[in-house]
Amino acid sequence: MIADRARFRHAKKLERLAGYRLPEMAFSGNMLETLSSHINYDSLDFGVRDQILAFFNDFLRCTCRDSPLCGCPEKKFAMKVIELRENGLDHRQIASYLLDEYGIEVFPADILSFMEDTVHVLEATSDVARLQGRDALAKKTAEHIHLIER
Questions:
Q1: 50/44 Cα distance (integer angstroms)
Q2: Is residue 9 part of a domain?
């Protein structure tokens, strides 16, 4: 999944703020728990703090009992990448957006690979939907495929 490839650019700053070693991976359990804990973000510079708060608001807000380790942050991140692609951004623009908005680095090639995998899953879903007579679902998946491939 694409979330496994996401790295925080400012992981070292967060590590110093938390007071213990943190992995660079944005969606690792340690990082998610640290971001969800009550640490003082006010000591970070304005830009980094805004990126972390945007990350928190967009990906870590859920009502699951096991939050933030429930899987919702990773799903929300994948949906965000797909949404950006469907809105017309290419893989390089998506990588740039994620870096600017959240301080998350993802290689454009990883995003491209994720999009290809997504299209394959959607094609399989469409085929199964057609076989089961669920034409509305097949049409919806075809629309998503078209938006991703354009």
A1: 9
A2: yes
What's the residue count for the chain? 150
Write a three-state SS string for the chain: CHHHHCEECCHHHHHHHHCCCCCCECCCHHHHHHHHCCCCHHHCCHHHHHHHHHHHHHHHCCCCCCCCCCCHHHHHHHHHHHHHHHCCCCHHHHHHHHHHHHCEECCHHHHHHHHHHHHHHHHHHHHHHHHCCCHHHHHHHHHHHHHHHC
Report the distance separating Cα 140 and Cα 150, nearest Å: 16
Residue 20 has pLDDT above 90, yes or no: no
Residue at 99: amino acid letter: L
pTM: 0.90
pLDDT band at 38 (very low <50, low <70, confident <90, very high): low
Whether residue 131 is contained in a domain is answered as no
Number of domains comprising the chain: 1
